[in-house]
Amino acid sequence: MILFGLLHYNIMKIKITVLKLALVACLLYFFVPVSFSQTSTPSFVNPVIQMGKVTISGKIADMRKVRIDKPVQVIFSLSHPISGEVVKKEIMTDSCGNYSVDLEFETNPVVVGLVTNLNRGKAIYLEIGNNRDIKLDFAYKKDGSIKLLKYPKSELTEKDMLSGMDILSKVADYHSKRKPLQLYNSSPESYMEYAKVGIRDRINLVDKDTLLSDPFKDYIKKDVFFFCSTFLFDYESEMKLNYRNFHNGDLIPDSLKIATPTLGYYSFMKDINLNSKLCLYSFLFPDFQEQMLRNDTLNISPIGTTPIAAWQRTVKNRISALIGFDNGQYYDVLTANSYARQLNVDVKPLSEIQKQNIHVYFQGGEIEKILLHENEKALRRVSSIEPLVVKDCSDIPDANHLIADILKNNVGKVIIVDLWATWCSPCLMALKEMRHLELPLKSEELAHVYITDDSSSKALWGKMIKEMDGQQYYLDRKCWENLLDKYSFEGVPSYLIFNKKGELKSKFTGYRGNRQMAEFIKDALKL
To answer: Is 290 helix (H, G, I), strand (E, B) or coil?
Structure first.
């Protein structure tokens, strides 16, 4: 399982026929209205929305060696809750372990996650205040754990900084002793009641932890909830996987009718308190917001040129009873996320009317500054977008014919083939990260090909690909499994990279980050 936002670079091996019983939020948080105020004193439990930059620098040591003799890969991750993305930045130290990185943030303070290739199973959580450059020196001990040598003072304890990934690993690896239930022919409410028990068990693991501070535990619980809600939103795919689990991986019969959740099904959201400012730090909060905005049942329309106050009234009428409140910071964040989807997903810059609507409502505040900053990025990306092409797969019997079709349609181009699924969190995170991939070739020299299968809801797939570019293939089960076997893939996301001659140059499972992907593409350019 994915270990939430910090671990999304890891390989996710999910056997396609294994049951993925999703979890739903347990009723832990009762709604307490939180008013948004830019003048409030920032703290870990009370971050304010604020755009800025910070420089993190220091030195990494490895006590298992006399000295570090080659560069170390360092990966920084942080949530941008207003522009709706988890931002990753990869750097390399010098040959002595010295590093420096500049990070843009959208909250003050901000939580930053840090891992290195010396031990990808250990992470450091940092709480960083506004525009305060910091020093972080740390070393890997002989057992692979991390020792902090110099670090910034903050509200996080040293145990918080070093043990966050450990508790998330424990939560993700938890296996219930309950007997799995056949849920695909039951009601969505039955699935929810079954899933509640599982999420409560995992939340209890966090509560029982003796190392973490109470505020940091509350933060971790938010990440646990948002991770579980990812699967809850994709109810149809979860029930298809449930069916296969009880039928030895058989194909889904046409006669199987999976119920569609009603609006009331989503009332689980009121118990998390989405107005809590701790949500802003969560590495999966942007993904949760994206699911909110594209969900057919919730039916939240894109903001377009609608004045913000009018759009919010419509949204409140639709979801306030489900999330438990009708005012507060959350609605402003959701508004910003709707604009950000246009900028980052559709790559459609703001119109003059939209800019005016933003200014009238936000009055030059931090959210307006962030959206205009994102608009500048969108303007630079417009020229690199590939057209969306949905391929007819009805006459593709196996992987050999599929690859032949892909190569024939992309002669003279470097081809990135991405095997993904709508229910796969690492896949979705990778898709977001690749939006910012700086490529060593012109856009007309590159082709993106995306392949999924019927474990993904076709309705959801059809909606999601409208927000993507490139060539889209939706395979039946037989062809998909043949493709996995051909390249010895066991899970998703998985990738194939072909050079301009149609020769396979790289294949791997698990997104390795933009830096490594750029290296793979450079390798494909070597003829």
So the answer is: helix
Please name the residue that has the structure tokens 């939180």.
34
Q: Which residue has 């046409």 as its token pair? A: 254
DSSP H or E stretch at residue 521: helix 514-524
Nearest CA among 274, 278, 314 for reference residue 298: 314
- Looking at residue 451, its amino acid is I
Chain centroid to CA 25: 18
Cβ atoms within 10 A of the Cβ of 164, count? 25
Phi, psi of 186 (to 5 degrees): -105, -175
Is residue 409 within 8 Å of residue 375, measured between CB atoms?
no
**Longest distance between any two alpha carbons in the chain, whole Å:** 65
Residue 131: partners with Cβ closer than 8 Å, 6 or more residues away: 52, 53, 54
DSSP line for 279-335: GGG-TTHHHHHHHHHH-TTTT----TTS-HHHHHHHHHHHHHHHHT-SSSHHHHHHH
**Residue range 3-30, pLDDT digits in tens:** 433 333 333 333 332 233 232 222 222 2
With residue 363 as reference, give the H or E element that holds it: none
Going by C-alpha positions, the residue among 303, 301, 289, 278 that lies closest to residue 361 is 303
Residues whose CB falls within 8 Å of the CB of residue 118, separated by 6 or more in sequence, listed in order: 60, 62, 72, 140
The CA distance from 511 to 493, in Å, is: 7
Beta-carbon contacts of 254 under 8 Å, excluding residues fewer than 6 positions away, are none
How open is the CA angle 495-500-503, to the nearest 5 degrees?
Answer: 60
Distance between CA atoms of 324 and 320, rounded to whole angstroms?
Answer: 6
Contact partners, residue 177, CB within 8 Å, separation at least 6? none
Condensed to tens digits (0 to 9), the pLDDT of residues 297-345 reads 999 999 999 999 999 999 999 999 999 999 999 999 999 999 999 999 8
Dist CA 232 CA 423 (whole Å): 10
Q: Which two tokens stand for residue 408?
A: 């024939």
**492, two tokens:** 């998703």
CB atoms within 10 A of CB 185: 14
Q: How far is CA 46 from CA 41, 63, 107, 124, 217, in A?
A: 7, 37, 10, 21, 15
261 preceded by a cis bond (ω within 30 of 0): no
Distance of CA 141 to the CA centre of its chain: 31
| Across 93-116, average pLDDT | 95
SS3 246: helix
Decide if 76 contacts 277 (C-beta within 8 A): no
d(CA 10, CA 513) in angstroms, rounded, equals 10
Task: Report which secondary-structure segment, H or E, holds 338.
Answer: helix 329-344
Distance separating the N- and C-terminal Cα atoms of the chain: 38
Report CA 158 to chain centroid distance, whole Å.
Answer: 26
- Residues 83 and 371: their CA atoms lie apart, in Å, by 7
User: How far is it, in rounded angstroms, from Cα 130 to Cα 109?
Assistant: 6
What global pTM score does this model have? Answer: 0.81
Q: Name the token pair of 451.
A: 């392949």
